[in-house]
Amino acid sequence: MTTGKFITVEGPEGAGKTTVIKQLEKALIKRGYDVLLTREPGGIDIAEKIREIILNPEHTAMDSRTEALLYAAARRQHLVEKVLPALKQGKIVLCDRFIDSSLAYQGHARGLGIDEVWSINQFAIDDQMPDCTLYFDLDPEKGMERIMKNQGREVNRLDLEELSFHQKVYEGYQLLLERFPERIKTVDASKLIEKVSEEALGMITAVLTDE
Ligand SMILES: Nc1ncnc2c1ncn2[C@@H]1O[C@H](COP(=O)(O)OP(=O)(O)OP(=O)(O)O)[C@@H](O)[C@H]1O
Ligand SMILES: Cc1cn([C@H]2C[C@H](O)[C@@H](COP(=O)(O)O)O2)c(=O)[nH]c1=O
Predict the structure, then answer these.
(1) pTM: predicted TM-score of the whole model, two decimal places
(2) Number of structural domains the chain divides into
(3) Which residue among 8, 9, 13, 18 is best mutated to probe the pocket of ligand 1, counting the most ligand atoms within 8 A of its Cβ?
(4) Which residues contact 153 (CB under 8 A, 6 or more apart)?
(5) What is the ipTM, given to two decimal places?
(6) What is the number of the ligand closest to the CA of 17?
(7) Containing domain of residue 20, as a range?
(8) 11 C-alpha vs ligand 2 centroid, how far in Å?
């Protein structure tokens, strides 16, 4: 039985998820909410180790199914060790990426199939879907430009994929918007950071006050 709220943030590379989610955390804490900010893959020791394996640019031999299974394994451990306990304590869990990333990246862009990747992830998440997902919508080319300008950011194995891969990821998210219209809300991520933050906060507030 979970009592908190599970909110995930999704979107292509460079859409501003990590920047904005930190601002959302601050704004919600200021309003008196108990918030846990975390990310996938990672968030806890075991999952951060899996992250290093998946995203290491030298691991070019990684098979797509192996990749999908590793994301699912990291997800399972993060969920049971960090997310579920926080939800039980009534916290708002803000998670930078979750199952929709697997569906868009591995399911659609890698071509494994959204239904197939959904099914391996059911074993990992056991029906624990987010209460709400904010999808940061941005042209993948613009997202990649933002990333390239950010000199301090580590470049991971997936960043190094061709633009066509990132376009497929974008296409995958559009399919998810059609599949989960109730859960996934679109945020226009092309606006100024402050505006994106404001729009996202408004959407979360609506979820938190709609009991
Ligand atoms: N709305 C915005 N307008 C312009 N630049 C932005 C905006 N949002 C974020 N950025 C910049 O774009 C870069 C990528 O942002 P960020 O790391 O938050 O994206 P992300 O969606 O988390 O990316 P990834 O999924 O690849 O980690 C950063 O340099 C950030 O400052
Ligand atoms: C959870 C998840 C992530 N990915 C990809 C998306 C990004 O390329 C990286 C994570 O890096 P970020 O800087 O933390 O966004 O992993 C994926 O392909 N599948 C997933 O399930």
Answers:
(1) 0.97
(2) 1
(3) 18
(4) 147
(5) 0.98
(6) 1
(7) 5-209
(8) 10
